[in-house]
Amino acid sequence: MSDRTTPQRDSDGNTDSERVPQDVTCEAEDSRQSSRLLYLMNRVLEESLVCRSVAEVASLGLELAEELTQSSYGVVVEVDGQGRPTIIAQSSLPGTSHHGQELDSGLSKPSLQATGPWKELLSSTGPVLFEGSSIKEFLVMPSTYTVSGSVLGVSLRQSDGVFGAMVVGRRSGICDASATRNLDSFSISFTRALVHRRALDALEKREQDYRNLVDSLPDAFSITALDERLILVNKAFADMLGYRQDELIGKTVLELTDPKELDLVLSQTGQRRKGESSVYELKMLHKDGHTCIVRVSAIPARDESGSITGILTGCTDVTGYRQMEAQLQQQKRETELYASLLKHDVANDLQAVLGYLEAALMFYGDMGPATKQMVESALAAAERMGRLVKAFGSLSTTTHFDIATVLKETTADAVKVNRQLTVNLVVSPEAEKLTVAGGALLPMTFENLLRNAAQHAGDNPVVDVTLSRRRGFAEILVSDNGPGVPEDIRKTLFTRGLSSSEHGVGLYIAKQVVVACGGSIELLDGEQGRGATFRVLLPVAP
Fold first, then answer.
1. What pLDDT, on the 0 to 100 scale, is given for residue 500?
2. Can you tell me whether residue 398 is helix, strand or coil?
3. Distances (CA, A) of 129 to 89, 152, 176
4. Quick check: helix, strand or coil at residue 146?
5. CA-CA 20 to 30 A from 450: which of 56, 168, 256, 540?
6. Alpha carbon distance 196, 185 (integer Å)
7. What is the pLDDT of residue 358?
8. Structural domain of residue 87, as residue ranges?
């Protein structure tokens, strides 16, 4: 007899050496499932990083969950503040309707009712298994669509509560315990991916809102890193320098600054690093090459921990203002030169003229009345010029005038200079002692009005001057009997460019003097050809 033993076979025909213990087979399957679970969990985390919206992340997660649980369809919802679920991703429904047509996968994303199985799922802390006809309540599908099998759902939670849910289903069969465990574990990574994308969406929205706000600012605004590079500029900033916004991002402030002022920029950045704020002026370079003078208000930018991360600046282009200021300074120097000329050279010549006129009156007593009158008029005009020259020496001094006295002296001098002129002065009782504040040139206003009437009112000009009080103002009306002011020059009567052959610059000067005193002057409306009436209002001195 042979020593060889014949192997015993089991009912499946396997020998003892061919049989594999059942626990070994289960361990291998569990290991395979675990590896697959980890693989899909990593995929959803990695691939979600390139998704551009929450809906894309939801679609990705749903696809992987269906693969993991061997499901045939599914849906992902998000929950609003009132607990209402809204579909954000849904897979194609399998099979056909009873008409034999394949169902459209491009379904809308409607809101659902948080009742029945949805209510149960959203209130659960773990996976929930549903069977039979209740599946229809999770999905948007025709009422005639035949469903059997099961649906497995899991709520998606953050620390502040439920924000959504994922549901996957099988057309037939029941989801087993393994699928339930896998979906529960997968939902952890899926939740992280969704929360991350939602946070990015919220951040992007805040950034866009911030950019919109910054762009709406009328003044130029920028955010600069501590290495001088521009991180953000609004439209006003770009327009100020002649660039598009995208052209400026990444450029340094040093590239946009006049080379002579680079040390100033570096010094100011040093102050920001120390946490200091400042306001200063900087010469910046426009894209076309010209220089802009910019007033900069700069403060340090800080992060949540308080660390200084950059610079916030508000800018105003003051180039035009500085040019105007320079022109005004030049005009001031010229005015001071003219005043000096009047005060010295012209004043000396006037003294000589006055001396000759006074000598003529003294030594030529036998001159005729007409000649004497002309000499006296010339003397009065020279004396007026002398007072004007003297006034130029005290332009910056504010004087309080007894306005009634000023009018009496001015009207008397006007009659001396213009012998054909008749002036009627009426001072109301309440205005006898009125005092107004004004510069040394204030009397010249009324001299110009009277001379204007004498020149344009005809052969026998008559001027009526009235002084009264009108609330807190002294009101002076100057009316003549001339032809009035032509309609075509009324609007430009007080402008500087009016020809001297018409009404001259006298009215322009008169207005400037009155306005400088805080008052006003205007031509009142009247009938054409019935004379002109000017009204002057001067504030009464306290």
1. 43
2. coil
3. 20, 5, 9
4. coil
5. 540
6. 18
7. 73
8. 22-92+106-204
